Amino acid sequence: MRQTDRHFKFDWVTILLFFALVIFGWLNIISASQTGETIDYFSFSSPYSKQLIFIGLTVFLIIIILSIDSKFYERFSSIIYLASLLSLAGLFLFGKSINGATSWYAIGPMTLQPSEFAKAATALAVAKYISDLQTDIKRFEDQIRIFVIITIPALLILLQKDAGSTLVYASFFFVLYREGLPKIYLIIGFLIILISIISLKFGFLVTAIITLIATLARHFTRHKRPSFLQPLLIIITTLVISFGVKYTFNHLPAHQKERITIWLSLEKDPVKLERMKKRAAYNLNESEKAISAGGVKGKGFLEGTRTTGKFVPEQHTDYIFSTVGEEWGFIGSFMVVLVFILLILRVLHLAELQKSQFSRVYGYSVAAIFFFHFMINIGMVMGLIPTIGIPLPFFSYGGSGLWGFTILLFIFIKLDSNRINEW
Fold first, then answer.
1. b/e per residue 217-253 (b: at least 16 CB within 10 A)
2. How open is the CA angle 324-46-27, to the nearest 5 degrees?
3. What are the strands of the beta sheet with 96-98, ordered from one edge?
4. Nearest Cα to 95, choosing from 84, 86, 85, 106?
5. Cβ–Cβ contacts within 10 Å for residue 19, how many?
6. What is the DSSP track for 170-213?
7. DSSP 8-state symbol, 391
8. pLDDT (tens digit per residue) in 260-306
9. pTM, whole model, 2 decimals?
10. CA 227, CA 410: separation in Å to the nearest integer?
11. Among residues 9, 21, 6, which one has the least CA distance to residue 409?
12. Cβ-contact 80, 149 below 8 angstroms
């Protein structure tokens, strides 16, 4: 009997936080997608009724994940990763295009988005490689191999014109930093972002002058000054990045270019900028109005006038948090943010308790991916960052997203059960 009981010992705090987010997310999908005074939960034609089916299937998916031996995920991580790459590559031949992105397989009346499942597969592959006894993350050759593991699915997704899902793979660098990746990589990444913003905002000349002053100041204030070759290389690299950023920006799709232009206020003509905002930032403007309308306590479930009036297009997907803001107010929004933070901190706490490096690395990957989605989505809805098509975990409508995040989380819960069930 004791042996049987072991299989049911899991971290129920994490599981309860998961179900709290899923249920509250579904309630907000009802608000964002209902079209009439009466709600038919079993019509299976509306987003909220379809999401209910997805949630029901999620329960069976959880049972399957938790019933599989935890060693399976480590032993077959490479095969799972290769299968995810094949599913991403297959989209170029059999994929269905929606809103300009070829990211879905059409299976009868349903669509399946493999990029949502590739995150868990990549996390398993990264954890497997880092936990290998022969791997030393401080060795340059191993760093290159890890970067390749992360970059291949990211590039495949980028080629499908799904920039939002591609950006998620940047979250793995925080995982690598925890495992000993030299901090110089984070510094370089931060500097590249800073150079990119300065180049777009102020132009090539300003970027060159700032870089020159900073480089020469660092060169002459050091006690042991190296040759001028190092600062020269830094300046040349900065100029190459600046040129590359400008070239890439000029060749972006029109809607992405407009979003960055609005975010950084790159248009000098205020009339044109305002016109651009009205055209390209309509969703954002309406989202901000919906959140503001909620006040402190919110208007109540199904009482949000901007939500029920469909002022925010596709509100049940990427802009679902604006529904929370209008109907549940600041208090409800704060509670949602709090539960997300608790879930992420809980996963990080459990990851640190793991005796297996594989489980620890995978746990950190889960937390990093959730944090990235959570931070980007809410920041986008509130206008703090440019509009990026990225879902809010367990809230945004869609079976692929719900199942992808569920698989990601519950594989870790299964791995963590080894620690709980030790005698």
1. eebeeeeeeeeeeebeebbeebbebbeebbeebeeee
2. 25
3. 96-98, 101-107, 110-112
4. 106
5. 14
6. GGHHHHHHHTT--THHHHHHHHHHHHHHHHHHH-HHHHHHHHHH
7. P
8. 777 777 766 676 666 666 665 677 777 778 888 888 888 888 887 77
9. 0.86
10. 54
11. 21
12. no
- Cβ-in-10-Å burial (0-12, 13-18, 19+) of 213 comes to exposed
Q: Record the tokens describing residue 111, joined without a space.
A: 């669509």
Question: At a CB cut-off of 8 Å and minimum separation 6, what does 141 contact?
Answer: none
**Amino acid type, 408:** L
**Burial (Cβ within 10 Å: 0-12, 13-18, ≥19) of residue 279:** exposed
Burial class (CB in 10 A: 0-12, 13-18, 19+), 326: buried
pLDDT for 354 equals: 93
- Rounded CA gap, 48 and 40, in Å? 9
Distance separating alpha carbons of residues 216 and 188, to the nearest angstrom: 18
User: Helix, strand, or coil here: 381?
Assistant: helix
Place of tokens 């500097």: 191
The structure tokens listed for 313 are 């297009």
> Tokens 């719900």 map to which residue?
402
Overall residue count recorded for the chain in this entry: 423
Q: SS3 for 104?
A: strand
Tokens for 10? 């899991």
Q: What mean pLDDT value characterizes the chain?
A: 84
| CA 352 to mean position of chain CA atoms | 22
Tokens 């249920």 locate to 23
Cα-based angle 87, 91, 94 (whole degrees, multiple of 5): 110
